[in-house]
Amino acid sequence: MVTADGYPGHAHSCQAGDFRSAFTKRYLKEFGFTIPDRPISVDDIRMTKCYFEDGYMDTSVYLWEELPCGNSIQGPAIIIDKNSTILVEPSCEACLTEEGDVCLTVGSDPQCAMGTELNTVQLSIFSHRFMSIAEQMGRVLQRTSISTNIKERLDFSCAVFGPDGGLVSNAPHIPVHLGAMQETVQYQIRSLGNKLKEGDVILSNHPCAGGSHLPDLTVITPVFRKGVNRPVFFVASRGHHADIGGITPGSMPPHSTSLQQEGAVFVSFKLVTGGVFQEEAVTEALMAPAQYPSCSGTRNLHDNLSDLRAQVAANQRGSQLVGELIDCYGLDVVQAYMGYIQSNAELAVRDMLREFAQRRRQQKTGSLEVESEDFMDDGTPIRLRVQINEEEGSAVFDFTGTGIEVWGNCNAPRAITLSALIYCLRCMVGQDIPLNQGCLTPIKVIIPPGSILQPSQNAAVVGGNVLTSQRVVDVIFKAFEVCSASQGCMNNVSFGSERIGYYETVAGGAGAGPSWHGRSGVHSHMTNTRITDPEILEKRYPVILEHFSLRPGSGGAGKYRGGEGVIRKLLFRNKVVLSVLTERRAIRPYGLKGGEDGAAGLNLLHRADGRILNLGAKTSVSLEPGDMFCLYTPGGGAFGSEEDLKKGGPQSKRRRLHDTFTERGSVFEYRMAQEGV
Predict the structure, then answer these.
(1) 21, 346, 377 from 556: Cα distances, Å
(2) Which of 19, 82, 393, 597 has CB atoms 3.0–4.6 Å from 588's, for a disulfide?
(3) Do 497 and 577 meet the contact criterion of CB atoms below 8 Å apart?
(4) What region holds the Acetophenone carboxylase-like C-terminal domain (predicted)?
(5) Which residues have CB under 8 Å from 41's CB, separation 6+?
């Protein structure tokens, strides 16, 4: 909210004043930088009614500079200053003193003092307050970033962590980020300890430090309070940067075999020291991959620096809001309710495990042990055995038998498996609780070292975050028979040159469940991003979106149908390097209880000279003007018994997709076939 006082109108502004200059100065003061030549959105609001405990009430709005000294204002009212807004609640009175201060007299409504003892109403309020902090961090990050990947696709996450680094609350951003971010914060606590000072901000992305894959840069800010020599909270934001160097534009190389080929690496890098942004040092680190054979430094340094500043600004907002919460209730109360929120999540998971065990007994299976297995497209198995202790409401998730580390980039750091597990547990809990550290308290996780789920320190991991994570989710849900497999892939598409870099993930079909059909054309499980708007895509990059639709018949048939995948065709106008990193091209998403599997995906390249090439699941290829990339994403598996399918109802007559082609001129098309036709 800005006024034009002190900024008179001129030939290039409106008559009421130069609001642009007023806004720019306010923006610079709040965030520490400006973004020249960016459009400014104006949303002019004057409130006349506000909602209080007794409902909507007429609320007067005043400008501070227009109020005379000694004037008294009865609440409810709003007083607007250049830098703040003051709410005068009902039964309260505001008076302006001769010194220019506002003196508030609080009414006589009875107030209850807050203590550290548990109050269920306050527990709900604090849960939403913590989540609101993460959401506001996200809004600041989206507003101040400039890259397509963060500003438009929303490929970022924000969260609040306790003094031990445990996740307290998060906004509903990207699931694969949230569980792993806790590992990142805890690594910095172990690594830096007392070296963390007020005014420091840490940057990290290395898998050994809780990173997911290198393009996901995590910015961590410790929150200090006067009189306490250690951080009382941490706030963090993780954003996917579309290019941080490496062997291919977009920093998502399909054939990387070592971490150094995937871009710039940060373990415990001080991005801000004593309040000073370390631009020179971080620039040097972002360009460092050029020292390795066939690698380049970042191809879009301007976006990297701007988005890192935006992440710092988002964390600053989170730190301010945590401080305001502590000022309002006191540190002891806030940290007490932080513990209650985590304990509530723990209790919910224990209850879920007990209920599952009871259902198993009612079904006379006798065993409180469940198993499942699925495979990556290269045949690498992911195996899980879950042993449930009904009395304690605890479980052991044992991934022994999972395949060894691969010569490629589908290795997933341990933090990724924990992210998938905490996400699945949260989904299976039948109540609304924040996703936080408490979900994992009743769980023991066994992951064999040297496996694809806990690879060596320098293993390539860029595909583990976006592909293997989805397979881990499928394996967990299969063990509990929660739902059929979703597309099991994020369908990673990146392209670029020495001047540009673009990255997107593409939706597919969701798996069906015991009482629902799978959703079509959605991001599922570990991803939760938008697709770039066609207008923005075509304006900023040398590409035309030729086709974007659902993929009919790709969902599995059954009592409850699997969701449909999508078809997306990109026509390129300039020379670029295209990288495709996908899964579920060989092994189809499974159906459950007799439900049909979803269709596998397919990546085709239509050359301008008429040739059509199958690119396979993972490839990098140089494109010429006129080449078109055609992406067919997997569908979801169906859920339904074999008897339901044999009854011949309308669902079983649904068209099936046969993975064959019919040639029509120089264009191959998927053809649908009725059963028996």
Answers:
(1) 57, 35, 19
(2) 597
(3) yes
(4) 48-96
(5) none
Residue 163 has pLDDT above 50, yes or no: yes
Strand partners for 545 = 570
Rounded CA separation 282/271 (Å): 7
Q: Cα torsion for 200, 205, 210, 212, to the nearest 10°?
A: 140
Q: How many helices (H) and strands (E) does the chain have?
A: 12, 30
Candidates 73, 109, 66, 116; CA nearest to 91 is 109
> How far apart are alpha carbons 265 and 284 in whole angstroms?
11
Cα–Cα nearest to 452, from 421, 417, 419, 406? 406
> Taking Cα atoms as reference points, which of 164, 253, 184, 236 lies closest to residue 414?
184
For the residues 588-610, what does the mean pLDDT come to? 96
Show the tokens assigned to 547: 């086709």
Distance CA 576, CA 319 (A): 41
pTM of this structure: 0.78
How many Å apart are CA 156 and CA 216, to the nearest integer? 8
* Tokens at 358, concatenated: 């009871």
Percent of the chain predicted with pLDDT > 90: 68
- The tokens describing 590, both together, are 């499974």
CA–CA distance, 342 with 425 (Å, rounded to integer): 14
| Beta-carbon contacts of residue 334 (< 8 Å; ≥ 6 apart) | 126, 322, 325, 326
Cα(398)–Cα(391) distance, integer angstroms: 19
Q: What one-letter code names the amino acid at 590?
A: Y
**Predicted pLDDT of residue 652:** 38
Q: Three-state secondary structure along 256-323?
A: CCCHHHHCCCCCCEEEEECCEECHHHHHHHHHHHHHCCCCECCCCHHHHHHHHHHHHHHHHHHHHHHH
CA distance 269 to 193: 14
Radius of gyration of the chain (CA): 27
- Whether residue 677 has pLDDT greater than 50: no
Six-digit token string for 641? 């018994």
